[in-house]
Amino acid sequence: MKSINVFAILLMVIFLIGNPNINKAQSSNGWRGTNGDNKVEGFNIPAKWPEQLKNIWQVKVGQGDATPVMVDNKIFLHVMQDGNEVALCLNALDGKELWKTSLNPSPEITGPAIGHPGPRSTPFITGGKVFLLGAGGIVNCLDTSSGKVIWKNDSYTEVPQFYTSSSPLVLNNLCILQLGGKDHGVVVAFDINSGKESWKLEGIPTTYATPSLMKTSENILLVQSDTDLCGVSTDGKLLWKIPCPVIQRFSNATSPVFEGQNVFVTGQGTGTKLFSITKQGETWNAREIWANAELGVSFSTPVLKDGFLYGHEAKRGELFCLNAKTGEKAWADATPHNRFASITDAGKVLVSLPATGNLIIIEPDGTKYVELAKYKVAETETYASPILSGNNVFVKDKEMLTCWSLK
Known about the structure:
Blueprint: H1 2-18, E1 54-60, E2 69-71, E3 74-81, E4 84-91, E5 97-105, E6 124-126, E7 129-133, E8 139-143, E9 149-153, E10 169-171, E11 174-179, E12 186-191, E13 197-202, E14 212-215, E15 219-224, E16 228-233, E17 238-243, E18 257-259, E19 262-266, E20 272-280, E21 283-292, E22 303-305, E23 308-312, E24 319-323, E25 329-332, E26 341-345, E27 350-354, E28 358-362, E29 371-376, E30 387-389, E31 392-396, E32 400-405
Antiparallel strand pairs: 1-32, 2-3, 3-4, 4-5, 6-7, 7-8, 8-9, 10-11, 11-12, 12-13, 14-15, 15-16, 16-17, 18-19, 19-20, 20-21, 22-23, 23-24, 24-25, 26-27, 27-28, 28-29, 30-31, 31-32
């Protein structure tokens, strides 16, 4: 019996190693990846891009703009089904459901956000737990193996105009969230095991960005509020603010992008700026290094790669590139896409997915725009970022999740 079991295990190992459609890499464990920089490892770049992608499987999962997350060949989604917010876990190999948990009634989406029903916030996976934030501000922590609810918090149900869109960040056994609305916005840290509040910072008007961890001589939480970019200590103390007033119909929806002690500020309708954050004694200072009033983003967080900042322009979504050191325009393509878009650093290529449903592969080049391939991957709008892993691209549109293969 033991020899049969060993033989079976060896066959399985050979199968996993040899099957090119197995997703060996962990895509990420939360919004914009493990380090919050939207860099992905383990995506296989072909020597020649195929004329078309191959549809491996497609399943109807539900409505919502939340980006799915893949860990250990399991895809975790936060969607709306039959009027309820639901957590789903699917097998990445075939799209089959492993478990489903109905969490709470979905809030009725009204006003200018009526066209976006369902959750917007990306799950965060760590330590056998998945953390989810609903469109109405309800927080749930579930067991990743079974989908069983471990704890829940529904104390912060005031929401911004376009409903709760910020995603969880887990750090030092704390689940850190921006909750509430413009009038009563807070940053809250919950104990990941019990759900008990560890600390709370009030007076931070909530918007649609997600906190990031800036690692310098001291770890700092970068929190984009409705009015300011805030530096917050990991125990919940406000350290500094950079005013971020918006114009016209813009919102502070861009998650912070940073490198070392430098932070890029964009998304307000006034271009892009770079600030240097320093500390002298006990005093923090934010010094503007450069400003580019021409190019900025709207509902699309840019990505920083090899000294250049790549993004989708704020009005028509054209792809552009800035010199990250000087702020000068490196290039700006004239093709309109959509101001709702994601852009991912996949190593030798950048992968963009605007709301148009076109997956765009570009070469990271600071001198000119180089498009390597373009594929239609959805017939409805795509507001979620794709999962890139192995030979596969997973795309969530309005209701469907599709696995596309390069081979």
